[in-house]
Amino acid sequence: MWKSLLGWVSRRKPGFWIAMGVGVFVFIVVANTPPTEDSPAPGFWDGAAAALLFGGTTMLIVVGCRRVTSFVRGRGGDVDGGEPKAIVAGEKPPDSPAESMPKPVSAARVPGVLEEDDDDDRLHPWVSEPAERLLAHGHGQDAVLAAARSINAHDQEKLRRFDKSDRNLLEEAFAETEPKAGSPRLRFPGDPQTVSWRNRMTGVRSLVAASFAGLRNVSAHDHDLDWDQETAGQYLAMLSVLARWIEECEVHRVTLVRESSDQASILPATKRPGS
Fold first, then answer.
1. Conserved hypothetical protein CHP02391 domain location, by residue (predicted)?
2. Do both 26 and 121 map to the same domain?
3. From the CA atom positions of the chain, what is the Rg in Å?
4. Is residue 103 exposed (0-12), middle (13-18) or buried (19+ Cβ within 10 Å)?
């Protein structure tokens, strides 16, 4: 029982303790207010009601400030760092795909997580560029969310699909079925008949689900995670593996070729590495 109580206490956020302190202070003041000629001395329940009122108001103010701060830091819009803007399902794609193509970026290190002198300890640029500045300033949750959004934006550009996004887009791209018109597939290079190739495809499908359900969605919707730099760095490393695998994959498409005004035929799937 005591361990459970201590665990519960240790998980409370600073805002909870601020509100608790305000409530206790108000209770003490109200409960010790002397009577006057016009009214009797407040009782226990008067102090408790005042404590709940002021403590609850304080909690709402603290939570509201946290939400506003998170929005201003970039959660409600594009994150500084140069990654392309993700287009969610249902939005109109850019008029000029060439203008929206992501610019080449260099692999940058994430400060505090990777050793500066080790060239092998680099995160994938899709992850490191949008996350580096946020992580350096202690915003681990926002860094993970920015990296996931960056991966999604690059996925959409690689597949040239803007009607789907995030997990839905990649799960369809890595599906075992053959590509269809308007629905390309991502495949690792190599022989699809080998056990290793099939294992890699199984692994990337699992990693997609874990990355977007376990990291992207959680970081976007839970505002009280308080991920420190080490924790966020480990999650960024996970997203870096996903980004590296996606970039390695080839895009398999089918092409519609018009034979006449009334007929069209579908050519076999074509491989376009890195497109």
1. 122-246
2. no
3. 26
4. exposed
Distance CA 17, CA 105 (A): 44
What number is the average pLDDT over the span 238-243? 96
- Please check whether residues 134 and 226 belong to one and the same domain: yes
Give yes or no for a contact between 236 and 113, defined as CB atoms under 8 angstroms apart. yes
176 and 140 housed in the same domain: yes
139 CB-near residues (< 8 Å, 6+ apart)? 73
Does any domain span residue 18?
A: yes
Q: Answer yes or no: are the C-beta atoms of 161 and 186 closer than 8 Å.
A: no
274 falls within a domain = no
Does any domain span residue 85?
Answer: no
Tokens encoding 240? 């870096």
Q: Could you read off the pLDDT of 55-102 as tens digits, one per residue?
A: 778 777 877 777 666 666 544 444 444 444 555 554 545 554 444 444
What token pair was written down for 205?
Answer: 């499908």
Q: Provide the domain limits for residue 204.
A: 97-249
User: Counting beta carbons within 10 angstroms of the beta carbon of residue 162, is it exposed (0 to 12), middle (13 to 18) or buried (19 or more)?
Assistant: buried
- What tens digit of pLDDT does each residue of 194-221 get? 999 999 999 999 999 999 999 999 999 9
Residues 27 and 157 in one domain: no
Q: Does 255 reside within a domain?
A: no
- For the entire predicted model, the pTM comes to 0.55
Helices (H), the chain: 2-10, 14-31, 44-70, 97-100, 125-136, 140-159, 166-173, 195-211, 217-221, 229-248
Residues 224 and 102 in one domain: yes
Packing angle of the helix pair 166-173, 195-211 (nearest 10 deg): 170
117-126, 209-218, 256-265 — which is least confidently predicted? 256-265
More confident residue, 73 or 148: 148
Q: Contact 213/182 with Cβ under 8 angstroms?
A: no
Rounded CA separation 253/42 (Å): 77
